[in-house]
Amino acid sequence: MIVQACINGARPFDYHPALPLTVEAMARDSAACISAGAAEVHLHARAADGRESLSAVDETIRLVRRTCPGTLVGVSTGAWIEGEPRRTREAIAGWRVLPDYASVNLSEPDAPAVIDLLHGMGVGVEAGLATVEDARRFVALEEGRRIFRILIEIDHEQDIQKGEDIVNGIASVLGEAGIARPTLLHGFDATVWHFVGLAQQRRWSTRVGLEDGCRRVTGEVARDNAQLVTDAVRMMR
């Protein structure tokens, strides 16, 4: 059971004053999150103009590793980042400083090819499952049992009960397929803290950070990512 810090995601520039968008800001923020108790960092690499870019992964991972030696660092491979499957795979294949793992959304058509590519490069895969349909697609993949971690992402459903129904459905599909992998559960905006609590109950890992929401467990807006991590670590203990 760990707390992962998800420090920026696809949030827009004006989402929060402490949203880290430059490589230097991501490195500083990652170090602060690790000091606050996070075990890992998940980030969306950004180009010099602050926009998401898979081509910025090398520089970002290099600097974050310098400030957080020994820490696992993961990135997103979201299809929207490059906007076209071929460009996505070409950008990933061009990485020379590899992340420890990369998240792949099973809802995206090219997910199997991206998973195969990452495994061939020696990069771990977080299989992002947001729906029961994603879970069914995942268990049918030959590469499914090699993945680094299951990432159950309730990032579209804001109704807590409906969200829990999705979690239970995903878990049921995985259980029926006999897939037992490390699991990380997280919510989004209004559901963040509910799913941190549920992860703690089920002895799964979780994540918090400005990618998923900016409010503390008390409801007030957090100062930064490290403050969100501090709250989550206390809950998980």
TrEMBL record:
GO molecular function: 3-keto-5-aminohexanoate cleavage activity
InterPro entries attached to this UniProt entry: Aldolase_TIM, BKACE
Domain of life: Bacteria
Protein name as it appears in the record: 3-keto-5-aminohexanoate cleavage enzyme
Organism for this UniProt entry: Pleomorphomonas diazotrophica
